[in-house]
Design a protein that fits this description.
10 strands, alpha/beta, 249 residues
Length: 249
């Protein structure tokens, strides 16, 4: 049984046609699924539907065999199992790094302070920011903030991690430090769905890639096939847009 399964998901807004049209896919435990596609195609909306931030019009989402879609009263429990990291960090500016990470484990999960703090500090050490535990977000770089956001999601011990364009707001030199953390999580066997425009990173980290355009999945394949052997014209047009001709000598 797949860890995450989506069946015939449709998400619509009143002012437009369907943002997601009859999406179906499954993700195995330990699998890294990268979601590619042009801006506005529905990639981020799909993640927000999985995490219950958007209500769906039809279809079903299952986590470990249990229906989780549109379960309003139980959504707080679902979000404990599905961690999400946004491009905007969403750290509380009035809390230190350590307190930001501990907020969910202590307030939501009611965990032991000593045990949760030990895990948080271990996570900070792992991402190279233990020395920043008593620092406030305003004193951190964008890359450091994003790494803290990842540690915060991990400290909830989720079954699945969702990454929504987590490097989109970073300066180029900060992108690599965040992507390296995600690469290590992939090596550790974390189940992840990643929306990104970093194509080389996508090729390196993904077990599978899906390509969405106009709210539909046009391709679902292994990275090598996607990047070098796709038979879908729209996929090839998308990839071609990232290539540049060599300057003539």
């Amino acid at each position: 049984m797949a860890l995450l399964e989506i069946k015939n998901l449709t998400k619509e807004y009143k002012e437009s046609e369907g943002v997601l049209n009859n999406i179906s896919l499954s993700v195995e435990k330990g699998e890294v699924l990268v979601i590619l596609g042009p801006s506005g195609c529905g990639k981020s909306t799909l993640l927000r539907c999985i995490n219950g931030l958007e209500k769906i019009q039809s279809g079903e989402i299952y986590l470990d065999g249990k229906l989780i879609s549109n379960q309003t009263k139980e959504m707080h429990k679902v979000r404990e199992k599905i961690g999400m990291v946004f491009q905007s960090y969403d750290l509380f500016p009035n809390m230190t790094v350590l307190k930001n990470i501990l907020l969910g484990p202590l307030k939501v999960q009611k965990r032991n302070v000593r045990e949760a703090t030990e895990q948080a500090e271990n996570l900070l050490s792992r991402i190279g920011l233990l020395d920043k535990k008593n620092t406030y977000p305003a004193e951190l770089s964008g890359g450091q903030k994003q790494r803290v956001a990842i540690a915060r999601a991990l400290c909830m011990n989720p079954d699945v991690l969702l990454f929504d364009e987590v490097t989109a707001s970073l300066d180029p030199e900060m992108v690599r430090e965040v992507l390296d953390v995600i690469m290590q999580l992939a090596k550790d066997g974390k189940t992840m769905l990643i929306v990104t425009h970093q194509l080389e990173f996508a090729r390196a980290v993904a077990d599978r890639i899906i390509f969405i355009d106009q709210g539909r999945i046009l391709e679902d394949s292994k990275p090598e096939k996607f990047f070098t052997g796709s038979e879908n014209q729209r996929v090839n047009e998308f990839l071609q847009a990232f290539k540049f001709e060599k300057k003539s000598s």
